[in-house]
Amino acid sequence: MTIKESIQSFWHETTRRYKPTELQEHISKTYRGMRRATVIFACSWPLILWLYGLFVFNIELQGSMSAYYHTPMRNWFVGVCFILGVLLWVYRGFGRLENWLLNVAGVCAVLVALFPTGTTYAKFHGLFAIIFFSCCAFVCAVESRHTLAGHPHAKRYRTIYIALGILMFVLPITAWVVSVWINASQPGGRGTWLFWVELFAVEVFATYWFVKTCEIGSHDIDLATKGKISFVPAAPQSAH
Q1: Which residues of 174-199 are buried (b: 16+ CB within 10 A; e: fewer)?
Q2: Burial zone of 64 (CB within 10 Å; 0-12 exposed, 13-18 middle, 19+ buried)
Q3: How does 213-232 read in b/e, with b if 16+ C-beta sit within 10 Å?
Q4: Closest CA to 191 of 87, 95, 86, 60
């Protein structure tokens, strides 16, 4: 292909009018990519802090994920907090309340990094973490219903979402109990129980987005964008 043909092909591709089904598929791929990115970053986050910190910087396992802020792994901790926060903020929920809760969760994820533990702002750090998981738990257990209407496995997914939502709500409380009663009883307060509870909580969060991606991908929302079913255009509204 000559340079002229390449330019003509590029110009045609960038100026052509896309069919509604192509636009729908593009939107679907964008949101699917955002959900997958959330899964990847959340799932790998605690493992990177632990294993990368251990083998690259020789950092022993810290008492919590937040404690890595005060190690050479600070950039990883803060960076993933910001990434997850932005992903939740820009992801538009399927209902107004879901969208609002995801926005709040996204802001709290960023604030968790801006108000680190082990400082005078530690109480805010814990508060924002609890709000983050509480918002995500409500989205998972309650607001996930918006995409289940007509799904052949709606009951199964509903059960999974409720279970994950309960875990996301209970685990932050468990983390508080561990930090106050168990880690405090360890020599020097250096127990690692809190890290494992936080790891479990983050993995539950990642699991929700993985299941949501599978659920939407197998349902009419994605099937419509792939041309397997058709949208019925809304009837034009008469002028009053």
Answers
A1: bbeebbeeebeeeeeeebbbbbbbbb
A2: buried
A3: bebbeebebbebbeeeeeee
A4: 60
> Residue 66: which of 173, 157, 192 has the closest Cα?
192
Q: How far is CA 84 from CA 42, 72, 130, 162, in A?
A: 7, 20, 15, 22
Q: How confident is the model at residue 10 (pLDDT cuts 50, 70, 90)?
A: low
The number of residues in the chain equals 240
Entry pTM: 0.82
Tokens 């995801």 correspond to what residue? 102
Give the Cα separation of 142 and 165 in Å (integer).
Answer: 8
Q: Which residue type does 8 have?
A: Q
Q: Cα dihedral sign for 37, 40, 42, 46?
A: negative
Query: How far is it, in rounded angstroms, from Cα 189 to Cα 182?
Result: 9
Instruction: Express each pLDDT in 45-65 by its tens digit.
Output: 999 999 999 999 999 999 899
Q: What gap in Å lies between CA 142 and CA 166, rounded to an integer?
A: 11
> Closest Cα partner for 208 from 147, 158, 151, 140?
140
- CA torsion sign, 33 to 38 to 44 to 45? positive
Q: Which residues contact 185 (CB under 8 A, 6 or more apart)?
A: 191
The C-alpha angle with vertex 221 and arms to 202 and 154, in degrees rounded to 5, equals: 65
Distance CA 186, CA 221 (A): 51
Q: Which of 46-50, 66-70, 169-173, 227-231 has the lowest mean pLDDT?
A: 227-231
Q: How far apart are the first and last CA of the chain?
A: 56
